[in-house]
Each structure stands twice: as C-alpha cells, then as structure tokens.
Amino acid sequence: MTKYDNNFTDQLRERLSIVDVISRRVPLVKKGQNYWGCCPFHNEKTPSFSVSEDKGFFHCFGCGKHGDIISFTMESEHVDFKTAIAELADMAGLKLPEYKPKTAEQIEAEETYVTITTAAAKIYAEKLFTPEGTHALSYIRGRGFSDEMIKKYGIGYAPKNNIIANKFVNTKQDKLIATGLVRRGEYGLYDFFRDKLMFPIFNARGQIVAFSGRSLDGSEPKYINTTDTEMFHKRQTLFGFNFARENIHRANRAIIVEGQIDAIQMQCNGFGETVAPLGTALTEDHIAILCKANRNIVFCFDGDNAGQKAAARACGIILPFLRDNSNVCFAFVTGGKDPDEILRKSGRGDMEKIINNAVPLVDFMWKITNKNYLINTPSGKVQAEKFLKSQTDKITDKLLRAEYEREYNNRKFNEWHKWKKTAENVHIEVPEIDNVIKNTLIYIVNKYPEIAERYGDFISKFNLDLDSNVKIDFDLDLNAAEKYIISLKIQKYIESLEKQKRDLTARGLAGENDVSTEIRRIDDEISRMRKKFEMLV
C-alpha cells in the first residue's frame, strides 16, 4: 500500500472539515456538541452515528465503526488508501505528492528539530531575567504582561551575541540551520534572532516549531518570524491556537486579531478563544483550521485603512467556508487603538462591547459595496452588482448562497435609487486637464491595471499618453487611487451639469418656456454630487 508521510495526511485533516466530508453522503443534524445521522455502514432508523467536528472523528454507537476523514472515505466509497487520499486532496485543493514512507532519518530529524527549538525557547526565557534582558523585560512588563503571563507563553529574550550558534556547537550544523534559528555566514554560523523580544510559536499539538522576534530599538520591521521550514509554515499557523483550541469549543466562536500581543492580552483577559496570523495576511489555510474547530468567527481589526482592507480581504476568503451554522462578524477598534491598548486602558468591559457590536458578514459586505462603488450612477450600480455577485458566487452551500442573493436583491430594490430617463440623454464632455492630473492618471493606470479596466470608459476620454515616463511617485495605494478616479469623475460630472444649467438659463432668458423644472433638477443633482464628493475627501 502506498504511504504518505504524516505532514500531508495531517494537512488534509487540518484543511478539511469532517462534517463537510461526511455530509456529502450522510445527512447530519447538530445536537449538542456533535453532529448526528444514520450510520452508512449498517441499516438503522434511529441515528446513532456521531461526528465530532472538533476532534475530527466519527463513531457509530450501533455497529462500533470509528475513524477520521480518511477511513470514512475508504469505507464509504470502497476505495483503497491511495484513492481516498487523492479524492480528499482534490476536495481540499491540494496537490497530491508522491511521498515515500518516512525513513528513520526523517523521523529522527523531526524529533531533533523539536528538541532544538524547545531548548532554544528555554535559553531565551532564562535570558529575559538576566541583566542582558533588562530592557526587554521592562518593555514587556510595560505592555501589561505579568510574570505569570510571560512564563505561560514562554516569552524570552535573544541577546545580541550568537547564543544559539554557541550553545549548540556540538549539534550538526545542517540540523540547527533547518530550524531557522541560525544561518551560515562567511565566518560560520550566526543567530537569526539578535536583540529581540522572543515569542515561541506552537503548533496545534503544543510543540514549539518557530519563533517571532520583536525589535526593541524601534527598527523596522517590528516583527521577524522564523522562515518557513519543514515543521513550520506561516500560512498554515495561527498564533495562540494551541491555547485557544478548547476555549473556542467552550465559547462557541473564535476571535481573530492582528498581532500576537493582542492575542495574548485577549486570551488573558477573558477572551481565550482569540488567535492571530503570523507576519502574513490571513489565508485560506488559517480559515480552514478555524472552521474545523468552530464556524462562528469574529474578525477584530484596527479601524484604520489597513484594518478595513484586511477585513475586506478576510470577507472574501471566508465565503467558501460558510455553512448554515456559521456566524461571521467584523469588529473594529477605532481611535488609533488596538485590542491590547483597549484592554490595558479601558478594561475587558469596553472590549466586550466592541466584540458584541460586531457587524454581521452580510451587512459588512453590503457596507463595503456601497463604500467602494458609486451606486447613484448607472455604471457604478452595475459594478457594485457585479462585485456582489462575484462574492456570493464563492458561497459553496447552494441554499445559503440563494439566501444571500435574495437578501441583497431586496436591499438593492429598497435602498438603491432608480434612474430617471432624462439622465440617459445627458452627454458629458470632459474638458482638458492639467499636467498634474494627467500624470496622476498615467501613474494610476500603469500601477493599477485593474482600476484602468474598471474605469476604462472614463479614463479613455482624456487621451493619455500611457507610454510617457512619469517619474513622480504619487504614493497612492489601491484604495486611494480608486478614490482619486471616483472624485475626478464626480468633479467632471458636476462641471457638465453646471454647463447644462448655464445653457438652460440662457435659453430661459431668450424666452424659452419650461426650463425652470429642469434647472431645479440639475441644482438638486449638483447638490447631491457635491455631498458625495465631500464624503470622499
């Protein structure tokens, strides 16, 4: 029988929900902590087949069958191990590797890896309470960390010298390098982490597999993490998950914050179900891991532009994982603060209010649609509708997707204005633009082709020379660039309306009747567009 190493089979178990796998063949109903259905392996009328989402196992109290997603696929579909793995890999969106059975050397290498990282964490923890680590200890205590918290999370200090390279001088260099703790330089091995406040990173089984180091001298980046290794992958690791796992089960939800200090403070102040990604944006793997534990998730981000962007991205990522038992919300910490500061200065009560007032996903997606598109113009409305459809199409649960579509159709009908026929006859002539605007547009088009595609009809009217060399860096991110285009469109639209008004006024002075109604309509439209413009700037 073909064998695959534990890394890949564990990855399948982490990526796939056993409830999702089994419910393809067995209708399941949640009762208490588990899901129940009629056993597919023997005939029964009363459900005795139990599925634990949290533990990743099924058990039939009637016939005694027991196993995980792999054994279920093998037995329910009457296929061998290799076929079952291939089918699950396809379901998980993973490439099936041609792994050979683990050798004794591979097993020994993994054991050595954990031995080294565990010993290194102990060295760092001891150094924190020495004279060398005084400034690091002062910093972390100043962030509200008690000695008990420091000990629980294994926080330590990496000194300026090569303490790890020197302490493990008798360890084979390749094994030490494989942990990411040291690197090979011109004069031998040197420590990757130096003069850093150290946070051990645990895998789901509680083993230390990597570290995150925070700078103490104000240098950037603030955090550096162990580079990806055989035992550690940032895209598949959530900081604090080993501590949060049971709390997620008890609280019936998970909370995601932006950084490890936020996560620790949340866990130690009554929100034990909190985790954080590590030096990388939230990924599908992170969501898959959490959804296996619980499908109720609160994203808690800073209220600044970066936090709003992170929330919008998280919204798009989680849609394929939604089920009818999902409750996904978005909470924002405003005022330039983060959860750590809220908890230290205002206490748990204020943080709880922020979490409890989180915006449901259905409302948050509606909010960002209205914010990012000019739904009071025909083209803007079409773009908004296309965006909503592109998002709801990601929902794999057909009934749930249909419910989202019905909800948004109702909102579009009730909240988005219908267009007056007279607006169809409005011809907008875009006047000449100065060099600053022209260069800004060229910069945006060349840097963000997706914006050029979205607003191509408008931008093309300026007859830009896109091959011209614009040397100025306007330092516009994607959101700011799009706002610039939208604000320019509004300005040009207002200018065209004012020209129409002048023409109508002239016709009225010449004795033409019935122009006053149209002038009032134009005045109303100008007033509305100016308010829209003020909201953007």
Which percent bin holds the helix content? 40-55%
Number of domains: 5
Distance between the termini: 65 Å
Largest sheet geometry: 6 strands, mixed
Fourth-tier CATH superfamily name of the largest domain: DNA primase, catalytic core, N-terminal domain
- What CATH calls the topology of the largest domain is DNA primase DNAg catalytic core, N-terminal domain
The share of residues in extended strands comes to 5-15%
Count of separate DSSP helical elements: 23
Q: What is the gyration radius calculated from CA atoms?
A: 29 Å
The overall average pLDDT, rounded, is 85
Structural category: alpha+beta
Please identify the top-level CATH class of the largest domain.
Alpha Beta
Strands of the widest sheet, in order across it, are 12-14-13-15-16-17
> Unreliable runs, pLDDT <50, ≥5 residues?
419-431
What is the number of beta strands? 17
* Structural shape: globular
CATH architecture of the largest domain: Alpha-Beta Complex
Polypeptide structure, described:
The protein has 537 residues and is an alpha+beta fold. It has 5 domains: 6-92, DNA Primase, Chain A (Alpha-Beta Complex); 106-232, DNA primase, catalytic core, N-terminal domain (DNA primase DNAg catalytic core, N-terminal domain, Alpha-Beta Complex); 237-358, Dna Topoisomerase Vi A Subunit, Chain: A, domain 2 (3-Layer(aba) Sandwich); 368-416; 424-536, no CATH class. Helices cover 50% and strands 13% of the residues. The strands form 4 sheets. A 6-stranded mixed beta sheet has the order 12-14-13-15-16-17, with helices on both faces. Strands 1-2-3-4-5 form a 5-stranded antiparallel beta sheet. Helix 3 crosses helix 4 (81-92) and helix 14 crosses helix 15 (348-356). It starts with 5 loop residues before the first helix and ends with a helix.
